Amino acid sequence: METVRQELRKKGLFGCARRRKPLLSKRHKKLQRIWAEEHIGWELKQWKKVWWSDEKKVSLVGSDGRRWCRRRKGEEFLERNVAKTVKHGGGKLNVWGVISWEGVGRIHRIEGNLTARKFTDILDESLLGSFHDASVNKSDIIFQQDNDPKHTSRLGKAWFHTQQIAQLPWPPSSPDMNPIEHVWHILDRNVHSRRVLPRNVEELWSAIEEEWYKLDPQLIRRLISSMMRRVQFLKFVRGKSTKY
């Protein structure tokens, strides 16, 4: 007798891990739909001007969840099939980074809890430093960040006003519209796939820096080039979660 699982598979229903997406309220969906409608006409030349930013927590031991691989019998201990761990792991680092059509900008190690004051210090050092490194004029760019209270604080707003840097309006709970999310995923994977894994937070920071500046600018350009499709799809699903 066929099992229920076999019957479901015949109907094309397979057991899959649920995709992780932010919980969206009716208000969030409405604001995302409006944002998509406002940016549906943007062409690549406009998206090229945007500098995308975000914070990321990188753990010393990598993901705590199961990591799957496909292997043959007897291959369970081959290097490519082993999930590497480190003894006495558990450290983590919070970092801030920015990307653009030029490639990666600077990545910044965040010490302690991020406050509005620390955030403006990061902007002074690493955002303006990234503009300098890329030889771009800040008046020619559009800066993107999410609506974290530290980003939208009085200090933060005053900093952008003083620097006269244009900002991209951003809807709530919209990480799938930000191409830097894919960059974080690749960075995390590369850090935890190194032949020699970091054993403490200092080695972790060294690995993060090295892997960050090794990221291919063409990869980032492909991600930014996907913005027209992202916005179109967000409008199509009327502000709901997308496949990105």
Descriptive notes:
The chain is an alpha/beta fold. About 40% of the residues lie in helices and about 15% in strands. It has helices at about 5-10, 25-40, 45, 115-135, 155-165, 180-190, 200-215, 215-225, 225-235, and strands at about 50-60, 90-100, 105-110, 140-145, 165. It has a five-stranded mixed beta sheet, sandwiched between helices. Helix 4 packs parallel to helix 5 (about 155-165). The longest helix is centred in the middle third of the chain and has 19 residues, at about 115-135. Residues about 15-20 have low confidence and may be disordered.
Percentage of residues assigned to helices: 40-55%
Number of strands: 5
Share in β-strands = 5-15%
**Uncertain runs:** 13-19
User: Main beta sheet, described?
Assistant: 5 strands, mixed
N-to-C span: 40 Å
Indicate the structural class.
Answer: alpha/beta
Q: For the residues shown, what is the average pLDDT?
A: 86
Strand order of the largest sheet: 3-2-1-4-5
Shape: globular
**C-alpha Rg, in Å?**
21 Å
Oligomer: single chain
Give the SSE order as H and E letters.
HHHEEEHEHEHHHH
Number of helices: 9
Topology diagram in text:
Elements: H1 4-10, H2 26-39, H3 44-47, E1 50-59, E2 92-100, E3 103-110, H4 116-134, E4 142-144, H5 154-163, E5 166-167, H6 180-191, H7 201-213, H8 217-225, H9 227-236
In short:
With 244 residues, this protein is α/β, with parallel strands linked by helices. The chain has helices at 4-10, 26-39, 44-47, 116-134, 154-163, 180-191, 201-213, 217-225, 227-236, and strands at residues 50-59, 92-100, 103-110, 142-144, 166-167.
